[in-house]
Design goal:
- The structure is a single chain.
- The protein is mainly α.
- The protein contains 14 helices and no strands.
Length: 220
């Protein structure tokens, strides 16, 4: 890695050191049933691979109510969920409330409330893992991008994954856009945790148009 690239990567991780979910949604991703379910809920609500403030506010509102596991979410009613989402500024609250209920039912009945069982069902196969995620109600392209970008920190077989925002930022900042090259050439020796944080930082820089700040920091 040349010095210019090192400076750019350092500037990115100095500005956004904790990855997307922790920075924007105040969500620390953990490889636990509750941690993975919270990430799934954020992904289901997502309107883009870098969700809008209304999405992150809605997710935090649900987590503040302690709806942080499939078991707890299953105790709620659609109207109750919709009210919380609507009050947090989520635009399609009624539909999202229904979808969250359907996703919760699937996670409970197919995976015993724990998405680690989805991982086991994929048997380490990346394509199978992605396909199983898409079977969960509400997990469209944006939702899968949110989930995969974060979960590759914990599940190496989920990646390397780079969403559209991160790809655009990498191109504009003269970094590799190929996920494998980002992982092996840039992410400090192929560490998936560093890749996850770097991809999150790239996505945030693109979504918030922070290119001038990154370039300025990299040149100092």
């Amino acid at each position: 890695m040349d010095e210019k690239t090192k400076a750019t990567v350092r500037a990115l991780l100095d500005r956004h050191p904790r990855g997307y979910a922790a920075e924007e949604a105040d969500l620390t991703v953990t490889d636990s049933a509750a941690g993975l379910f919270r990430l799934l809920c954020l992904a289901i609500l997502a309107d883009d691979s870098v969700p809008s403030p209304g999405v992150t506010s809605a997710a935090r509102a649900m987590f503040d109510r302690r709806w942080i596991s499939a078991e707890e979410m299953a105790k709620t009613e659609p109207g109750e969920r919709a009210d919380v989402l609507r009050q947090a500024g989520y635009q399609q609250a009624d539909q999202a409330a229904r979808t969250l209920g359907e996703a919760t039912d699937l996670v409970l009945h197919r995976y015993d409330g724990d998405l680690q069982n989805l991982r086991r069902a994929a048997h380490g196969n990346r394509d199978r893992l992605h396909a199983l995620l898409r079977e969960i109600p509400g997990m469209d392209a944006a939702g899968c991008a949110v989930f995969l970008r974060e979960v590759q920190l914990l599940w190496p077989e989920a990646g390397p994954f780079v969403d559209d925002h991160a790809t655009r930022a990498a191109e504009r900042l003269d970094l590799p856009t190929d996920p494998d090259r980002l992982l092996h050439d840039i992410a400090r020796g192929g560490k998936t945790e560093t890749l996850s944080w770097l991809v999150g930082a790239l996505a945030l820089v693109d979504a918030h148009n922070e290119y001038p700040a990154i370039r300025q920091a990299a040149h100092h």
